Amino acid sequence: MALPSISIHVGRTKTSGADHDQVVYLNGRSVNALNAWLAAARIDKGSIFRKVDRWGNLSSRPLEPSAVNVIVKQRAEMAGLEPGDFSAHGLRSGYLTKAANRGIPLAEAMEQSRHRSVQQASSYHNSATRRTGRAASLIS
Q: In angstroms, rounded to a whole number, what is the distance separating the alpha carbons of residues 7 and 25?
């Protein structure tokens, strides 16, 4: 049985030019979660992640990039964790670390994370693979 799959057009990002529409792909449970959110929020076009006012009304306007960081910190605090230990940047770097831990090649992970700099992406990816790599076990 095939996994549900979807492509998401993220549009212009801080590292892409105005003429480049960035695309990421999801499959499996994340597609189901996204579809549930879109149905619950009654979103059929436009931005997936949107502003919610203090009364819980969903806006047609997208979240500001800085709002993601605020949300991550608030959710960490709600979970009883130290909010200073978490950030929106950590989501992206954590993705590369998890990809490395699962043996996903750096180039493939960068396609999904939309990192443009191999040097930056490899700093997250390589530190994770060094812990479990064959070279680490040579000194024993």
A: 4
C-alpha neighbours within 13 Å on the C-beta side of residue 137 = 4
pLDDT in tens, 109-120: 888 888 878 887
Q: 73 falls in which pLDDT band (50, 70, 90)?
A: very high
- Residue 136 identity (one-letter amino acid): A
Instruction: Confirm if 25 and 5 have CB atoms less than 8 A apart.
Output: yes
Q: Which of 61, 63, 65, 117 is nearest to 87 (CA)?
A: 65
State the alpha helices, DSSP H only, in the chain. Answer: 29-41, 65-78, 88-101, 106-113, 118-132
Per the structure block, which two tokens stand in for 89?
A: 């940047």
Residue 49: DSSP 8-state = S
In a 3-state reduction of DSSP, which class is residue 62? strand
6-23: per-residue pLDDT in tens?
888 876 666 555 556 678
Please state whether the predicted TM-score (pTM) of the whole model is above 0.70.
no
Residue with tokens 């699962």: 102
- pLDDT given for residue 43 in this prediction: 92
Q: How does DSSP classify residue 50?
A: E
